[in-house]
C-alpha cells in the first residue's frame, strides 16, 4: 500500500454534505432573506464592500437585480458567495440553520485529526460559509479540526493552479494532500497539480463515477482505500 497522505482536503457539497442541503435549504434561505438583510446591514463595512464589488461588476445594472440573476444561475462569483455567507451566518447564529453532514463524515474527520492528519476545506462557498456550516453542524462544532479553509479567492475549482496554491498555503508537497470531491473536473485539476484524489460517489446525490479517479461511497470507504484511521 502507498504511504497514506498527511493532509485531507475536502469539498463540501456532494462530498461532506448533501447537494440537496445547499440547493434546497441554503440557497432559498439566502434568496428569501436578501432584501431584508441588505436593508438592515447595507451600511456595515463588510456588506458595503461586497455591494461595491457587485456594482463594479454589474456597472449599469442594479446590484440587487444582479445578485438575483447570479443566484438564479448559481454563479460562482466571489461577491455573491461572500454575501450568501453573511446571510447564512445570521441564520446559523439564531438557530434557523444547521449545517448538514452525512453521518459518516464527522466520526472520520475526528479520527483522522486525532491520528495527526491535517484537515482542510476547499469549496466554492466562501470561507465564512464553510466555517458556519462546520461550526454549526448537526454533529457540533468541527472547526477546531481544520487547519485551513479555502474558497474561490485562491482560484477556480477546475484550475490546477488553485490546488498548487492551496498546497503552498498549507506548506505541504502536493503529493501529500488527498483531495476529496464528487466532481470529476475538480479532481482532474487537483491531480494535474500533483495531489492524490478520490471521487465521492454518494448514491443519495446521484453522483456518477468518472472512472478516472479512485472512488468511495463514503468517508470510511476513503479510509480503507488510502490507509487512513477508521472511525471509532
Automatic annotation (TrEMBL):
Required co-factors: Mg(2+)
Pfam family, one: Hydrolase
Keyword Magnesium on entry: yes
Organism domain of life: Bacteria
Subunit structure: Monomer.
InterPro entries for the chain: Enolase-ppase_E1, HAD-like_sf, HAD_sf
SUPFAM superfamilies (UniProt xref): HAD-like
Protein name: Enolase-phosphatase E1
Recorded metabolic or biological pathway in which this protein acts: Amino-acid biosynthesis; L-methionine biosynthesis via salvage pathway; L-methionine from S-methyl-5-thio-alpha-D-ribose 1-phosphate: step 3/6; Amino-acid biosynthesis; L-methionine biosynthesis via salvage pathway; L-methionine from S-methyl-5-thio-alpha-D-ribose 1-phosphate: step 4/6
Cofactor mode of binding and number, as noted: Binds 1 Mg(2+) ion per subunit.
Key word Hydrolase present: yes
Keywords: Amino-acid biosynthesis, Hydrolase, Magnesium, Metal-binding, Methionine biosynthesis
EC number: 3.1.3.77
